[in-house]
Amino acid sequence: MVTNLSSSFFTVTYTSPDGTKEVDFAIEVPNLPLPGPHGSQVNPNFHGDKLSLYQVGDTTQPTSPRILMWNEPGTWSEPNGLPGVPYVLGTTGLTDAEFWATANSLVK
Questions:
Q1: Residue boundaries of the structural domains of the chain
Q2: Edge-to-edge strand order for the sheet containing 22-27?
Q3: Distance between CA 65 and CA 63 in Å, rounded?
């Protein structure tokens, strides 16, 4: 499903038929929640963005919500103080390996 479609933003959501997995991909200025006591954050240098941020909600749960935010080169109509266009990939119900397989399928 595509929502929030405008000249500046978009959100694409996929939900598995059984409702246990969801993938959200968007152009938006991310506002990440703080990680909980078992959460983690790292800067993976995704697509060459040294400011990219990967957050796992609860590292003790294999399919915990995961969020990756990064900027791609380009010009965005809604400047956010960072170079490029802000992207966010969020998942629920995916393992770490499934998350990174999805993320790495996004071509620069």
A1: 2-104
A2: 2-3, 10-15, 22-27, 85-92, 66-72, 53-56, 40-42
A3: 7
Q: How much of the chain exceeds pLDDT 90, in percent? A: 68
Cα–Cα distance between 11 and 68 in angstroms, integer?
Answer: 14
Tokens standing for 59?
Answer: 């590292």
CA atoms of 6 and 54, how far apart (whole Å): 26
User: How far is 64 from 62, CA to CA, in rounded Å?
Assistant: 6
Average pLDDT over residues 57-81: 89
